[in-house]
Amino acid sequence: MSWSEWRRRIAVAMMAAMAAWPAMGQERPDTSLMQYKGQDRAARIEAAARREGTLTLYTSLAEKNIRALVDPFEKKYGIKVVVWRSGQSRVLQRILTEASAGRHEVDAIHMGSPELEALQRERILQPVDSPVFQQLSEGSVPEHREWAATILQVFVQAYNTDKIKKEELPESYQDLLDPKWKGKLGIEAKAWPWYAALVRRLGEEKGVRLFDDLVDRNGISVRHGTSLLNNMVVAGEVPLALTVYSHMPQASKDRGAAIDWFTLDPTIARANGVAIARHAKHPNAALLFYEYMLSADGAQKEFAAMDYVPTNARLDSPLPNVKFALVDPETVLEEVDKWTRLFDETFVKRTD
Question: Least enclosed by CB within 10 Å: which of 4, 214, 266, 335?
Fold first, then answer.
């Protein structure tokens, strides 16, 4: 779905939501602690959160990781987290659908930065002023402060160690034009944000021409799903994949699979983040969870243990010597039609 269609749906949803909220006759919960800076801030947030006792989280986090992140929070604070999990687009759609019906079920949201930015533009999120922001890496908190990045999902290049020797690896994207890579390359079918960020860094004309030439000369296998692409590398069906997230081949390697990974410059990363819904029924529990997700002694250390790149700079990065070029949420929102078209014309349509 194009961003223009998303904007139309969001606008309709928010008009209905704003009309429905006063009519419901409910007193809006107190959100003053979102901006509170007093010395007793942490104690007041925890006390208010415990009184609420629960929160509802909508997320696109991998299902296998949710309990490792949520259970420590529930155990520490005695606050129940009700989780609804799906893919990015379905989480976004559910939030919009509920807003259009005047329902405000979600308290906290964790998903990709472009989707969060879309919700921010339509006033669905709550601004927060948190001292934990000072601990986060540069670029983790937008100026509007309505979401904050929790992790970076870093696109790396993965290869089958039985098929390719380490000394044979390319040192640049230009090296992939070598005929020795013919029939050996793979890419994920929806990796257009990676393509957009990379091509913009390389110089748009130069970058588009590079990948046009690459597909013409050596071809590229298009696979649906990053996990599937990683598994194809493990199986040797795709000897070298250009777009897998760093934690995937590392986890496979740790299990003894014939896979390893490396990075080509520029290394592209996209942020996932956490936000609080503007009409949260449990805003203080959501705020406590929000700061837990960003804290070095909270979920950030759990993310690091999963080989994600945490945004809290107090923790060591699994990729300490890699400089990232971030996918720009604004580009994703404003130029989605352009970049999906270019990506499909370059990779998908020419390799069907």
Answer: 4
Of 139, 70, 58, give the one whose Cα is nearest residue 302. 70
Asked if pLDDT for residue 128 goes beyond 70, the answer is yes
CA distance 295 to 83: 20
Q: What angle do CA 298, 284, 13 make, to 5 degrees?
A: 110
The Cβ-side half-sphere exposure at 317, using a 13 Å CA radius, reads: 18
Number of CB atoms found within 10 A of residue 249's CB = 26
Cα dist from 325 to 138, 200, 201, 245, whole Å:
12, 10, 8, 14
Q: Which residues on adjacent β-strands are paired with residue 109?
A: 58, 275
Share of the chain above pLDDT 90, in %: 75
Kind of pairing, strands 108-112 and 148-160?
unpaired
Backbone region of residue 297 per phi and psi (left: phi > 0; alpha: psi in -120 to 50; beta: other values): alpha
What is the arithmetic mean of pLDDT over 334-350? 89
Q: How confident is the model at residue 25 (pLDDT cuts 50, 70, 90)?
A: very low
What letter represents residue 75's amino acid?
A: K
The tokens of 147 are what? 């979401």
Q: What CA–CA distance (Å, rounded) separates 268 from 44?
A: 39
CA dihedral 220, 346, 169, 165 (to 10 degrees): -10
Task: Please tell me the distance from the alpha carbon of residue 106 to that of residue 273, in angstroms, as a whole number.
Answer: 15
One-letter identity of residue 282: H
Secondary structure of residue 85 in the 3-state scheme: strand
Q: What residue type is assigned to position 339 of the chain?
A: W
